[in-house]
């Protein structure tokens, strides 16, 4: 059985190594509203694959974002910590967005991510764009 966690960040997938553990797929998508998916009632935008996964799993209907910008939100999602703890929160007059892959910055090397914890628990993890 698939468990679906729909959130508002970038695509991040966790796949179980053994059948004893549930498979977990987390969709992290910028600028996607809950009403944009068929599994949440939209009948104009067709999302059959996501709808099928949602039928076979769990649909979470409540989420809260820790920041109004994508980079701090992604940092919070990956670590489970507020973005200010990772140095990625925007203060007054600051812009804390990593817009290019060649830009310096990002999560500090000492941060532990959700993927690292899941991997240590026997899950295979992957990140797909």
Chart the SSEs and their pairings.
Blueprint: E1 2-7, E2 12-16, E3 23-28, H1 48-56, H2 70-79, H3 83-86, H4 114-120, E4 123-126
Parallel strand pairs: 1-3
Antiparallel strand pairs: 2-3, 2-4
Summed over residues and divided by their number, the pLDDT gives a mean of 76
Tell me the distance between the termini.
24 Å
Tally of DSSP β-strands: 4
Overall body shape: globular
> What is the structural class?
alpha+beta
The topology string of helices and strands comes to EEEHHHHE
Q: Work out the helix count.
A: 4
* Percentage of residues in strands: 15-25%
Q: How would you write the strand order of the largest sheet? A: 1-3-2-4
General description of the model:
A 4-stranded mixed sheet has the order 1-3-2-4. It has helices at 48-56, 70-79, 83-86, 114-120, and strands at residues 2-7, 12-16, 23-28, 123-126. It is an alpha+beta fold.
Keywords, please?
129 residues, alpha+beta, 4-stranded mixed beta sheet, globular, disordered N terminus
Sum this structure up briefly.
The chain is built from four helices and four strands.
């Amino acid at each position: 059985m698939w468990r679906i966690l729909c959130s508002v960040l970038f695509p991040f997938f966790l796949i179980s190594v053994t059948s004893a553990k549930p498979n977990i797929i987390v969709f992290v998508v910028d600028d996607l509203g809950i009403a944009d998916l068929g599994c949440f009632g939209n009948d104009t935008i067709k999302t059959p694959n996501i709808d099928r996964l949602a039928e076979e799993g769990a649909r979470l209907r409540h989420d809260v974002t820790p920041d109004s910008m994508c980079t701090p939100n992604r940092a919070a999602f990956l670590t489970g910590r507020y973005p200010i703890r990772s140095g990625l929160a925007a203060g007054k007059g600051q812009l804390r967005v990593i817009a290019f892959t060649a830009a310096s910055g990002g999560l500090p090397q000492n941060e532990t991510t959700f993927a690292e914890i899941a991997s240590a628990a026997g899950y295979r993890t992957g990140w797909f764009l």
